What we know:
By secondary structure, the chain is α+β, with helices and mostly antiparallel strands. The chain has one domain (3-128). The protein has helices spanning 12-24, 38-46, 67-75, 93-111; strands at residues 3-7, 30-34, 57-60, 63-66. It is globular. The model has no long low-confidence stretch (mean pLDDT 89).
Amino acid sequence: MSAIVLFDGECNFCDSSVQFILKRDFKEYFYFASLQSDVGQQLLKEYDVPAGMDSLILIEDGTAHVKSSAALRICKHLAGGWKLLYAMLIIPSPIRNALYDFIARNRYKWFGKKDDHCMLPSPDVHRRFL
């Protein structure tokens, strides 16, 4: 069984997050697609994700999880102490998402936006990009 992470392909912070996941996903549980890709757009429609959602999205077990819920559910599958962050799901989502939204609103200003080129995955992880 596997899950799909949809990410903003224009965002440097999001690209770094994908790299972070890849380095800690030893079981190769996650596959990836940018929100801007044809695959990403199709998955957004298929899972009825609200229009304009540019959050990190995790598709797992037939459900689309967004924002902090997606990030914490991803942590559950990462190697090391990152799994412990999953326990933060007990915090009500409006509180968790307030911090998530603050970072999301400022991500281009703080981390920049990609130019006309995007990251090309190395051959060993290329197959995990949809």
